[in-house]
Structures are given as structure tokens and as C-alpha cells.
Specification:
This protein has 115 residues and is mainly α. Helix content is 75%, strand content 0%. The chain has helices at 4-18, 22-49, 63-69, 75-86, 90-113.
Amino acid sequence: PVTARGQGYPSYWARLALANKRGAAAAAVAVNFPAWGNMCSELSEALHSQPEYGYNDDKASLAFIDFFASPIEKLNEMAATVMMKENVSYQDVVTEVRLLQEYEILFWDSIFDAK
């Protein structure tokens, strides 16, 4: 079912985009993607290593997870470049980054609860 908890995260991304908060979005990606990548890496390894799950020889089914399991090269530098172009500091983006992290938790919790 569609829930407010599930819609808060994508809605806040849209809000940042509409408000042209590129620096905040870049900082949020730099914070979020390494954590997401680590989770994807651990999930992929677990699914590939357990034959009972049926993924040990199936690369195609986990392509999405495997794609994000690889770190994005120079992600911090790219985020810093955007932040400098937008002339924003840590203090300028900390609230948006924190809110995105909180909204993402609500998003995944809503997915889990919808089971």
C-alpha cells in the first residue's frame, strides 16, 4: 500500500530538486551511497554464498545489487565540487542530509511493514 512513510523519502528528494538545493543533494549522496554500497555488497555476498537461496551462479538476478555494491570513484570529490560551486558549507546542508537519512529509514521501514 502507498503510505506517507514510504513517500517521504522520494518526496524530499523532489523538494530538494525543486528548491535547487544541489549542494545538499550532493552531500546527501556522498553520505548515503557508501552506506548503501556496503549493504548491497554484504547482501550480494550472502545471497551468492548460500546455495539454498538459489543465487550462487545467478549473476543476472542480482545485477542491481551488484552494481551498487561497487564504490563510486571520487564520490566525495564530486560532492565537494558541487558544494563549492553552490557555495554551501556543512552547516548549510546538515539539516537536509539528516532529514534525507531519516526519510530513507522511514521508507525502508514502510517497505518492511507492507509485507
